[in-house]
Amino acid sequence: MSKIINRKTEETIIEDENLTIKELAEKAVKDKISLEYADLTNADLKNADLEDANLKGAGLYNANLYNADLEGAKLKGANLIIANLDRANLTDADLKNADLSCADLKGCNLRNCYLRGTDLLGADLTGVNLKVVDLEDANLKGVKINQDQLIDLIKTSKIVRIINKKENE
Q1: CATH number for domain 1-169, candidates 1.10.760.10, 3.40.630.30, 2.160.20.80, 3.40.50.720
Q2: d(Cα 119, Cα 76) in Å, to the nearest integer?
């Protein structure tokens, strides 16, 4: 029996004996069932279609989200520590105060992503689209990033505009 539980209340969010965790998560999104505080620790969500999913506060520790579509997803306060988000689409996603420590985000699309207060300690951002990203109050200590991305970040990121504004005052 596959089921997804709410890690706060320990109540079942969705269950089905014939579906995998990935299929359950996709079904929940399709049926507009909130996955808020869902326990998806170690879940294999490779290539999952989770566009516009409500994953606020979800536990996605060590989850495999390789090439997953999370466009417009609400991941505010989610635990994505050491998650694999390689090639995932997080365009327009809300990751405010999420924990992405040591996460693999190589080749991920973070365009227009809201990362305010996000912990990116040691995350791999190699090849990530960082255009128009809000990184205010984000922890960027030890992130892996290439020079071209740093230039994009300087040109378009809100964190840089805030720093420049303070320097010019």
Answers
A1: 2.160.20.80
A2: 12
Give Cα 167 distance to the centre of its chain: 31
pLDDT, tens digit, 9 for 90 and up, residues 86-122: 999 999 999 999 999 999 999 999 989 999 999 999 9
Residues in CB range of 21: below 8 A, 6 or more apart = 2, 4, 40, 43, 44, 45
- Cβ distance 106 to 88 under 8 Å? no
pLDDT in tens, 52-83: 999 999 999 999 999 999 999 999 999 999 99
What residues are paired with 6 via a beta bridge?
38
Q: Torsions phi, psi of 109, nearest 5?
A: -100, 110
Point out which residues pair with 49 in neighbouring strands.
69
Q: Which pTM was predicted?
A: 0.87
Q: Strand 12-16 vs strand 2-5: parallel, antiparallel, or unpaired?
A: antiparallel
Please name the residues in contact with 129: beta carbons below 8 A apart, sequence gap of 6 or more: 108, 109, 110, 111, 152
Which single residue is written with the structure tokens 């128009």? 132
Q: What is the CA radius of gyration of the chain?
A: 16
